[in-house]
Amino acid sequence: MSDLRAETLAGRVAVVTGAGAGLGEAMARAFAGAGMAVAVLDIDADAAASVAASIASEGAAATSTRVDVGDADSVAAAAEHVRDSLGACHVLCSNVGVQQFGAIERLTEQDWSWVFDVNVMGAVRCVREFLPMIRTETGFRHLLFTASSSVLAPSVRMACYQTSKFAVLGLAESLREELAAEGIGVTTLFPAAMMTGHLDSSVRVRPIALGESRLDQADVDAMLAHQPLGPDDVTTPEHAIRNLLGAILNDEPYVMTHGSDRSIYERRRVAMDAAFDRMENS
Question: Which residue segment(s) compose the domain that 92 sits in?
Fold first, then answer.
C-alpha cells in the first residue's frame, strides 16, 4: 500500500461484522495492518474477543462485542459500544451471511424468514445504526457489503441464499447512488468459495424456534455438479481480500475475490445485451 493510502486510513475506525473468524477476521486484520482501529463484531462473543485481543497484541487499537444482526436491539447496542470505546466509525463492513441449501420446494417459510432477516435486514440494521456515526465524520468514509459470487453465477439448491445476496447488492447499489454527494463511498464484495467454517456456523447459529438448519450433502453435491469447482476456485480469506483496501480507497463499486465465474457472468451479460437490442429494434 502506498504511503498516501496508508495515511488515508491511519487513525480511522473500521467496524466489521462477522469478524470472529473467516472473511470478517481477515478484513479486520487488514484494516488494523493499515493503521486503523478496529471493532470486531460477531455473534460469537468469545471468538470476537479473541480476534480483538490478537489484533491489540500487535499494536493496533481494537475492541469487540457480541452482535446478532438479526436483532435490531443487538445492533443498536453494538453501535453504542463502538461509539463509547472507539469514538467513531469511518468504514463499515456489513459482512454476514447465513446459508440454507435446499431445492425450492423444500425450503420452508422459516428458512426464507431466517436467511432474509440475517442477510438482508441485518445489513439494513447495520446501515441504520452506523451510517449516522459515519456522517458526523469527514474525509475518507466508506461502506462495504459482502454479497456473493453466486449473484453473478447462480447455482442450484441455493435459491434462498442467492436471492438474499441479490437483495444485498440492491441495497449497496442504492446507497452508492444516495451517498455519493456526501463523499461516502460504497463497495460490494463478491466472495467465492473459501476455506472457512461458514456452513457449519450457519447450522449452529440458527434460532431453535425456527427449527433445525439442515445441511443435506445431496444438495451440496447437486450444486457442485452444476458448477464444479476448479483448482483456483477455493482459497483462503486472506488471499480473497488481497485487493480490498486498494479498491475501497479508490471507491471501486465492485471487488471480485477469486474463482472462475467470469464465463458464466458473460453469458448473462450477452443475454441482457441481446434483450436491449430486441427492445431497441422492435
Answer: 3-281
